[in-house]
Design brief:
- InterPro entries: Ferritin-like.
- It comes from Blautia glucerasea.
- This is DUF2383 domain-containing protein.
- The chain is an all-alpha fold.
- The chain is elongated and about 45 Å long.
- The chain contains 5 helices and no strands.
- The protein has a single domain, classed as Ferritin, core subunit, four-helix bundle (Ferritin, Up-down Bundle).
- Helix 4 runs antiparallel to helix 5.
- 82% of the residues lie in helices and 0% in strands.
Length: 143
């Protein structure tokens, strides 16, 4: 159980870090005040979930996992291309929707891959999925 629990926590931790980083990256391009507030609220939600994840990792004496460098680089390149071609609010919504969809897909895969993870940690992963799905829905008006 502990092995699956730690592995699921690491994946949640890396995904949340990637999400917060992406949210912060697109914030500087956003010109709509309502979208900016929405993204700030999402950063706060993801940060809270990240703190919970980190707390669990500490209890298992684990430092967590960083997002893969290549994924961060590809995200940065895609963002810069998208913002140079498109209206900034739409570009932000599209990029974040794509990122959230990837995050949801990955988290469901990890929930199936680590079936013996602790129930509280599975619930945490489900909370992250819910936060991602909520953001996807809220971004629809900007697409």
């Amino acid at each position: 159980m502990d092995d699956d629990t730690i592995k699921l926590l690491r994946e949640c931790n890396a995904g949340i870090k990637m999400g917060v980083s992406s949210l912060e990256d697109v914030m500087e391009h956003v010109t709509d005040n309502n979208l900016s507030r929405l993204l700030q609220k999402s950063i706060e939600t993801h940060s809270r979930l990240g703190n919970t994840t980190h707390g669990y990792l500490i209890s298992f004496h684990d430092e967590g996992k960083e997002p893969p460098t290549m994924a961060k680089m590809m995200s940065w390149v895609k963002s810069n291309i998208k913002f140079s071609e498109d209206e900034p609010n739409r570009a932000a919504a599209e990029l974040l929707t794509d990122g959230c969809n990837m995050g949801v897909k990955s988290l469901y895969r990890y929930l199936h891959q680590y079936p013996n993870a602790d129930k509280k940690v599975k619930k945490l992963a489900e909370d992250v999925i819910e936060a991602e799905e909520t953001l996807i829905k809220e971004l629809q008006d900007y697409l």
